[in-house]
User: Fold this.
Amino acid sequence: MSVQAAKKFENFSAWFDDLILRARIADNRFPVKGFIVYMENGAYIMDKIRELLEDELEKTGHRKMYFPLVTSEELFGKEAEHIKGFSREVFVIDQGSGEQKLIIRPTSETIMYPMFRLWIRSHADLPLKVYQSVNVYRRETKATRALYRVREIPWNEAHTVHESPSDAERQVREALEIYQKVLERLGIGYMIFKRPDFDKFAGAVYSLAFDAWNPDGKVNQVATIHNLGRNFAKAYGIEFEKRDGSRGTAYQTCYGLGFSRVLAAIIAQHGDDHGLVLPPIVAPVQVVVVPIPFKGQEREIYEYAGKIRGALAGRWRAALDDREDVTPGEKFYHWELMGAPVRVEVGPREVAEYSATVARRDTLERVKVSFEELPSKVEELMRSIEANLLEKSRRMMLSLISDAGSVEEVKKILRDRRIARIEWCGEVECAERLKEEAGGEIRGERYDIAETPKGRCVVCGGGARFVVYVARAY
Ligand SMILES: [Zn+2]
Assistant:
C-alpha cells in the first residue's frame, strides 16, 4: 500500500467522512436518520454514473420509463416471499380516514408487474426490457452510513420479461456484462458472487451480486442481478400466448445498481490522503489549468493559460483557475482534494518555451510537454489514469483475500480488516455460527471464476460443497 493512502487504511471512517464533506460530495448532517444531502460534486458524479449505465442499457434494447413512487398493501402482498423479505423495511403512508395505506417503493416489482400483465399479450411482446433511475426507500434498522447505507437510495433498476427460461438466463448474462463494463470504466475492483440461498433477493430463484472492496475490509454491494423465474409472473398473472398458440406464464429477471454505493466505491478505492482521485469519465473538472504568476509577466501568463484551456476545452471539461487572491500552492491543494485527473501548470518558463507542465492526479507525476503536444499528451494521460486505477484497485482487492482453515482463522482475518476464503458445507446453521463467532457474513461463491472445494467445512468439519468468501458488509 502506498504511503499516501495510509490514513484511509488506518482510520477509514474518519478519512471518508472528512473527505466527502471537504470535497463537496455530500453533507451528512441533515437531521433525519439515513437521509443525506448530495452536494454539487456528489450529485454531478452520480449523474455521470447514471449516464454511463443508461447508455449501456439503451444500447442493449432497454427502454426508460417512470413508474409511481407508491404501491398498495394489496399489490405489495401478492408475492409471499417478497413481502416477507421487505415488510419490516418499508415506509408506509397512512392516509387516515379509512383510506388504504400506501407503501413507498423499497424496489419496484410490485409497482411494475401489474402493468406488465396489461401490456403483455403474446410472445411478440417479449422480451420486455424496461428501466428507471429513481430513489427507493428502505427503513434501515442497522446503523446508517453516508452513501453506503442510506434510507433514500438513488439507483437504477431494470426489469425484464421473457418467454423461456433460457432467454431469462441469457438476460442475466447481458446484465452481468453491462455492469462489468460500467464498473470497469470507473476502475472499481469487485468480485461477483452467487449469493447463498438464505441471502437471495426475496422472491428470486437466485441472486448474483457485485461486492466492491473497501479499505476497512468490509464489502460494498454495488449491484445485484436476480433471476426471478416465474415466481412473480405467477403472483401477478403475467401470461402470454406462446408460439404454438397455448398460454404460458412468463419468466423474469431484475437488476439494480446503486449510484451512491458506486460513488462510495470510487471515493474509497481510489482516494488518498490528498483527497479524491476521480476516474476521468465522471470528474466534474477533468483538466485544470493553473497559472503561476511572476512579477511583471502576469498578463502574458494569464493569457497563455487561457489559450491552453481553450485548446483543451473542445475535448475535455477544462477549467482555468484564475482566482487572483489564491496562491498556486493553494490551488494545487484544492484541485488534488477535488480529484481533477490532470493539472496543467503555466509559469514564466512555460510561456518562454511555449510549453506546459502536466501533472497526473493518480501518481502525482509531472512532465513537461510542448504546446503542440499538449492535447495528445492529455488524451494519453486520461487513458493511462483510467487503466491504472482499475489495475491498482484489482491488485488491492486480491491482496485483501486470505484463505482460512478454521473459524479462529476467519476471525483473525476479519479483525485484520480483510476478506476470508473458506470451504463450506452449505448448511445455514454453519453460516449462522460463523457470523456469531467470527462476525462476518458468507457472501457466496464466485460467479466470475470457478473454484472447487476439496476439503471440509471450516465450521462443522462435514464435506465442503462450496468455496465461499466471508466478509463484514455495509
Ligand atoms: Zn458446515
